[in-house]
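Aggregate trends can hide what the representation actually does to any particular protein. For completeness, the protein is quoted in full, as a sequence line and a line of structure tokens.
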Amino acid sequence: MKAAKIRLYVEHPLGEGQTIPLAQPQAHYLFGVMRQGVGDAVLLFDGRHGEWRADVIEAGKRGGVLQVAEQTAPQRDPPDLWLLFAPIKKARTDFIVEKAAEMGAARIIPVQTEFTNAERIRQDRLQAHAVEAAEQCGGTFVPEVGDLHRLDRMLADWPKDRQLMFCDEGLAGHAATLAGDLPRGAPWAILIGPEGGFSEAERARLAALPQAHAVSLGPRILRADTAAVAAMTLWQRALGDWT
């Protein structure tokens, strides 16, 4: 039995004996780029049924077919954690989405703040980055990447049961971190602001939100992409599935 070296996300439900047809892009990657062929093994996951080993039974330039053999890992869902962030430059926005998927976000939501520079995003491209990150990090879950939402509208209709960790660059240098009797296992979200920071109106609205918890990410003001990684690390260590 050949060892599987490649992981692919597929949208077909997985189970023993299932045959999985490959569309042209995945067939090109698997057979053209990675030089796999009939008899080679591939690891598959669909985001719901764990990871499975499958064997290539048909290989072509425009498509192919895999047959599922056995489950190799159970489904591992992340905590109910959203990451909200203001889009920045293209490569750094891609980085935020990739790292959020790797670090255990269940949903990723770009938000339009008063000082956000980007007015639009390519949701399909960002979703593809989330898929690639899950494939590479060994995850069995792919977070949904939402379209761009206005922050003021989201806060106006914020779910009463979802706590919000608000990363406030104005607290840099202060010891304001997650502490106290905070609800573990409850729905949470992390909010990362834009490069220009939050407006005074946004700060006031966040301060008035009962579910919001303002935190500092250390003694220095971090870039938005660095802040996203630092914030997820802090939350995962305190309340997530890293403990």
Q: What stands out?
A: The chain has six helices and twelve strands. The mean pLDDT is 91.
